[in-house]
């Protein structure tokens, strides 16, 4: 199987609120909308927002309130960019879970939760390259 991820779908409690967070708060633009779902084109991957109950039904998984153990990362070119993204997320209504700090693996990272509780890491890894098109080279 080819090593790639094509789309990350986040189950959200309120699609309108989620759209405001990502579009007005973080400044993202939707690539496509359909009844009950919104798609965003990211560098080399897509992100979808889909009603949490509808996603649970589609995946045949119960909504049980536990942390899923999955985080989504936004890697940045500099520590200052990490700080700026965390500040923008906080201003848009995110909860800062861990302020940015230097970490054991030699980088700099912090975490926020969006209004639906999805955990995002914002990180700078000096060993990795963020290409001009936004894609990551490990």
From TrEMBL:
InterPro entries: Glyas_Bleomycin-R_OHBP_Dase, Glyas_Fos-R_dOase_dom, VOC_core. It comes from the Bacteria. CDD domains: VOC_like (cd07251). PANTHER family: BLR2520 PROTEIN. This is Uncharacterized protein.
């Amino acid at each position: 199987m080819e090593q790639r991820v094509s789309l990350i779908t986040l189950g959200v409690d309120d699609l309108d609120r989620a759209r405001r967070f990502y579009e007005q708060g973080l400044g993202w633009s939707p690539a496509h909308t359909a009844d009950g779902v919104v798609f965003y084109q990211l560098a080399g991957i897509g992100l979808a927002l889909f009603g949490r109950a509808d996603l649970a039904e589609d995946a045949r998984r119960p909504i049980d309130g536990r942390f899923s153990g999955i985080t989504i990362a936004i890697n940045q070119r500099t520590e200052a960019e990490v700080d700026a993204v965390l500040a923008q997320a906080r201003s848009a209504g995110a909860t800062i879970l861990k302020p940015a700090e230097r970490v054991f693996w030699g980088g700099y990272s912090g975490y926020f939760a969006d209004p639906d509780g999805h955990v995002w890491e914002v990180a700078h890894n000096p060993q990795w390259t963020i290409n001009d098109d936004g894609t990551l080279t490990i």
